[in-house]
Design goal:
The protein is built from 8 helices and 20 strands. By secondary structure, the chain is mainly beta.
């Protein structure tokens, strides 16, 4: 019989992971795509290019932000970027940041519309004297939690974000869904949940590659919204955090020209429920969480899989082989804001009457591209809100419009995704 504490931990995992759900069911008829209204173009400049290391290596998920604005984007897995900036902001610089590398500052006026290539150098720095609390990781974490109200916004904000979910069968892309979403983010000290709406969305799915299954993701942008662990602290930072995890001070590092403490954490050995292990990057000056990168502990795989899978085939056993999470925050005007998050989930389907197993991998990512505290002009009507159990694949249209995103900043598609889309288009055109 489970203890009360055990039951509480299981419920906690289900509460904050239930949206990271794979829906597996037998293929139905293809739904018709719904048309979307077109955006009106505004006075913007568009820049594209690539960010690399000194040796030409790719710099995936580097952050590009326009200084003194809320405009930002991230590079894709190939280090490629697409940045859209109002012409009124052309007197500013673009800040390019990547963990462990020196920041780049590039004048917008010096950038070309296409073909920009910038190289980043590894950090070479000497740490100044710092007051580390005896490098005691628990003390640092307590300080982080105590300073939450000072480090994160305590008023409601509107966040514009680009959302993408990719489903792969082994190494082949079989489904891609993308959306511009507006998120009504409640104050970080609020007990109310955030709300979201889809402004525009699109999809491309190769149903032939899905065999007889429909493999879908529930939750859409809410997967990433609830990954904001400072907004939803019970995800990791519950009241009994020190009863569930052990912490270790690893090192001091640097993010965006700021010194951070790197804290390693993992669940205690006697806990059998699937919790997490990974690293926390805590700003040394403000004690704000600047980044968290962690995995779910899959030792108790059956329990972990029950969290993720809502429905599965009768003639198959489903197991989870990967559950990786990343959340980044950005400092702006003395406050820290959600910047980017990424979820990498993998399932294995062991068929009873087949020789080969099927592997599905899904990458779910969302990047904040703008922030506003003007709540009057951007209201959330109930009919515009999406449900936390939304399936973006069911809501999105196709890829026929090359100017689909208009003025909105997005993450450039990876080359593999572009190839997949082109193949799907050719198949549909036959």
């Amino acid at each position: 019989m489970k203890s009360i504490r055990s039951i509480q931990m299981t419920n906690l995992a289900k509460t904050y992971c239930v949206l990271f759900v794979f829906f597996i069911g037998y293929q139905a008829l293809k739904a018709e795509n719904k048309p979307f209204s077109q955006l009106q173009d505004t006075a913007i400049n568009v820049f594209s290019g690539v960010i690399t290391g000194e040796k030409g290596d790719k710099m995936p998920y580097a952050v590009l932000s326009v200084e003194k604005t809320n405009i930002s984007t991230v590079t894709n897995a190939d280090g490629e970027f697409l940045l859209k900036v109002p012409k009124s902001e052309m007197d500013k610089n673009v800040l390019v940041s990547f963990l462990g590398y020196e920041n780049l500052r590039i004048p917008l006026a010096a950038m070309m519309p296409r073909g920009n290539k910038y190289s980043m150098r590894p950090l070479q720095f000497t740490l100044p004297p710092l007051e580390v609390i005896s490098k005691d990781p628990e003390s640092i974490i307590r300080k982080m939690m105590e300073n939450k109200d000072k480090n994160y916004s305590n008023k409601d904000m509107m966040m514009t974000a680009f959302y993408r979910e990719i489903i792969k069968k082994r190494n082949t892309n079989v489904s891609l869904s993308e959306a511009i979403t507006e998120v009504y983010k409640r104050a970080y000290n609020s007990s109310l949940h955030d709300m979201a709406s889809l402004y525009k969305s699109r999809k491309s799915t190769d149903y032939n590659k899905l065999d007889t299954l429909v493999f879908k993701l529930m939750g859409g942008p809410f997967n990433n919204i609830y990954l904001d662990v400072m907004r939803y602290p019970d995800y990791i930072f519950s009241e009994n955090i020190f009863e569930n995890y052990e912490f270790k001070f690893l090192k001091t590092d640097q993010i965006n020209d700021r010194i951070v403490y790197v804290i390693d954490f993992k669940q205690l050995r006697h806990i059998v429920e699937p919790l997490f292990y990974g690293q926390l990057y805590i700003d040394a000056e403000t004690y704000a969480l600047a980044r968290a990168e962690f995995d779910m502990d899959l030792t108790n795989n059956d329990e972990a899989t029950r969290i993720f899978v809502r429905k599965k085939p009768i003639n198959a056993k489903v197991s989870t082989y990967k559950a990786h999470y990343l959340i980044d925050y950005r400092l702006n005007d003395d406050l820290w804001y959600y910047s980017y998050s990424r979820i990498d989930l993998g399932l294995k389907i062991d068929w009873k009457k087949r020789l080969l197993n099927t592997y599905y991998n899904s990458i779910i990512e969302m990047a904040a591209t703008d922030w506003s505290d003007d709540m009057d002009r951007r209201t959330f009507r109930s009919k515009d809100r999406i449900n936390p159990t939304v399936v973006i694949q069911n809501e999105a249209s196709g890829f026929s419009d090359p100017e689909f995103w208009g003025e909105y900043n997005i993450i450039e598609p990876d080359k593999s995704i572009e190839n997949a889309i082109n193949k799907i288009k050719k198949q549909l055109d036959k």
